[in-house]
Amino acid sequence: MTAPARIRNFSIIAHIDHGKSTLADRLLEATGTISAREMQAQVMDSMELERERGITIKAKAVRMRYRAEDGQDYILNLIDTPGHVDFSYEVSRALAACEGALLVVDATQGVEAQTLANATLAQALSLRLVPIINKVDLPAADVEGVTEQIFDVLKIDSDPLAISAKQGLGTAEVLEAIVRDVPPPQGDPEAPLAALIFDSNFSVYRGVILLVRVVDGGMAAGMKLRFFSTGHEIVVEEVGHLIPKMAAGERLSAGEVGYVICGIKDIHQVRVGDTLMEAARPRTEPLPGYKEAKPVVFAGIFPVNPADYPDLAAALEKLNLEDSSFNYQPESSQALGFGFRLGFLGLLHMDIVKERLEREFDLSLIVTSPNVVYRVKTRKGEDLVIDNPAKFPPHGDIQSIEEPFVLVTIVLPVEHQEGVLNLLKERRGEYVGIEYIAANRMLIRYRLPLCEMVVNFYDRLKSVSKGYASLDYADAGNRASDMVRMEILIHGEPVDALSSVVHRDKAYDVGRLMCAKLKELIHRQNFEVAIQARIDSRIIARETLSAKRKDVLAKCYGGDITRKRKLLSKQKEGKKRAKQFGAVELPQEAFLAVLRLDEDKK
């Protein structure tokens, strides 16, 4: 058992692409945790998608041994965090398991939106922040300017370390700073057990593997434990450390980070952020900060081939064992058949789940337009929570609709201010504040409806700022808005999968663009097809797809006009009959048409 005074628990937080995973690689190399033969770039990012996109999706932990300059041996527990705003809940849980954090800032880009958000989160948890300026070897590095931003914007008064994680420059100084500046854990090894679950994953052979930080007490194989939030009891089969692969040990004591295996077969019994305690000596209150991760973006997922529905159901069940942060339930659509409605933490989370389903389970999928959760109050006094536009009650039954808002923080160069402010205004944004964080950089805060963010907002933001703007957002509660359900009718029949919820002021423009887009995508039929947008039982936009026309007069080489009239009349009757009984088949692209409406506006 290692004395708590010789343990340091820390995390690395940074904006995307500021060098967090590269710095972790250098620390693993410098401490000899991973041999040169096993070393590869982004060693902590084991998932193929993480390596391909250069982002961290899952929180992970690794234990390092380090002999400091004072001659003492220390245990350094690195708890790696995701870098994207969609996974901010995982970041908060990982930080709650630490006493300190390395705050990495790119020397060429300076403080970004997520740098500020993560630093604020760490300071709220009373963590000791060690500022680090990375990529100082690049020609465009501005160490002095970034140092000023760290002092002025992040309110951190300690001098930052200047390093190059890629070149390995300054790694020794970082390790010494961890030992010197990050406080040791303060837990009591003799107290009743209290352990924070900061992540979990699933093994087909071992069941659920819990990643825990022991705050007080200790645990060993054979102990009977209890989850605070559910009261569910389990027996410990194995405990150990991640070095970075699992290595079994005898005991996890106060201050240590490791894994616990208890033979749990259902990951939904485990809640990340929950407190583990000893069944014989239960605690009266949990460790602070626990809350359930709530999905904010919803979308329908359907197989292209209806026969693949059982395969999709099995794939979702397996993937949900690894990633319990999305939820799903069966759904049927008149247009798309049987599928599932999924709830995600954000758009990137949705994209990653879809891509993993297609790659890992060899499925071809259709994903409907994403939407958010609305709270609807009916005239009968009912309070409904609706995540699917098709489930909206009739317009006459609705008394009020509330939509979720977010507080958006954007950091960008001053020269792109006009384009970004116009975009925020176009998306119904409300001004909160503007700060200048450097001579040529500014920070904008706006309150924005979440539904305006889920479709193409990030892409448009990058476009108007030429890629220089960075974004972070946080929940800002619900507010009443004049929202309406817009239905799309094809040949007089509403298509439930194309229904959407829009603000009344935008309904006409969205409906007109949607009808025009569908007219381009739907193949011509043997009869005329009406494409209409409807709100409150009123048609607000229409496009007409003309029928295919066969030249029935081609065989008439002269002769009496009555013969030609007879042929045209016969064709007209046939088209009338086809229009009465015909059905229109929609291509896959039609269900993603709403995602491309912004492109048509430009």
Characterize the biggest β-sheet: 8 strands, antiparallel
The termini sit apart by 63 Å
Strand order of the largest sheet: 11-10-16-7-8-15-12-13
- Helix content percent band: 25-40%
Number of helices, where a helix is a run of at least 4 consecutive DSSP H or I residues = 14
Shape: globular
Count of distinct strands: 31
Round the mean pLDDT to the nearest integer and report it. Answer: 82
Question: Helix/strand-derived class?
Answer: alpha+beta
Characterize this entry briefly.
α1 crosses α6 (171-181) and α7 (309-322) crosses α8 (347-361).
Question: What can you see in these coordinates?
Answer:
By secondary structure, this protein is an alpha+beta fold. It is built from 14 helices and 31 strands. An eight-stranded antiparallel sheet has the order 11-10-16-7-8-15-12-13. β27 and β28 (493-494) form a beta hairpin. α1 packs across α6 (171-181) and α7 packs across α8 (347-361). The termini are far apart.
Please outline the helices and strands:
Elements: E1 7-14, H1 20-30, H2 48-53, E2 60-67, E3 73-80, H3 88-96, E4 100-106, H4 113-124, E5 128-134, H5 143-152, E6 161-162, H6 171-181, E7 194-203, E8 207-216, E9 218-220, E10 224-227, E11 233-235, E12 238-242, E13 246-249, E14 251-253, E15 257-261, E16 275-278, E17 297-303, H7 309-322, E18 327-333, E19 337-344, H8 347-361, E20 365-367, E21 374-378, E22 383-386, E23 398-413, H9 417-426, E24 430-438, E25 441-449, H10 450-453, H11 457-464, E26 470-480, E27 483-490, E28 493-494, E29 500-503, H12 504-521, E30 529-535, E31 538-545, H13 561-581, H14 597-601
Parallel strand pairs: 1-3, 1-4, 4-5, 5-6
Antiparallel strand pairs: 2-3, 7-8, 7-16, 8-15, 9-14, 10-11, 10-16, 12-13, 12-15, 17-19, 17-20, 18-19, 21-22, 21-23, 23-25, 23-26, 24-25, 27-28, 27-29, 27-30, 30-31
